[in-house]
Amino acid sequence: MTVEADIEAALAPLVGGRVFPDTAPFKTPRPYATYQQIGGLTLNPIAKEVASSKNGFFQVNVWSDRRAEADAIALQIEAALVTAEAFTAKPMAGPISTNDADLNRYGKQQDFSIWSDR
Question: For residue range 87-104, what is the model confidence (pLDDT) as tens digits?
């Protein structure tokens, strides 16, 4: 499995299976989660070899109809990623609250550094 598939597997039970890379389809029922890779660290071995692991910085977002629900799910997302068996995840900072007045939705986003097999 890819690290993206592992992230989706970790988050899916928290949002009824509604986990999407980058953006969710329009009119997706809430709550749902999105994620995207926003960088990462590179490994540069001295010998001419390819590293067996890789790092990615991933931003994970949850969207809901209610602020309290977004906050609660964000805590569950952090716990699910930090305790996942398929990779090693560490929060890079605390979560950030956001909203989208045009779509009447509330969000929470958090960035994670995730190490996984290559």
Answer: 999 999 999 999 999 989
Q: Sort 115 into a burial class: Cβ within 10 Å, 0-12 / 13-18 / 19+.
A: middle
Residue count of the chain: 118
Structural domain containing residue 83: 3-117
**Beta bridge partners of residue 110, listed in sequence order:** 60
Question: pLDDT tens digits for 34-73?
Answer: 999 999 998 877 778 888 899 999 999 999 999 999 999 9
State the CATH number of the domain containing residue 97. 3.30.2000.30
Determine contact, residues 56/88, Cβ cutoff 8 Å: no
- Tally of domains within the chain: 1
Cα gap 89→91, rounded to integer Å: 7
Q: Are 53 and 116 in contact (CB under 8 A)?
A: yes
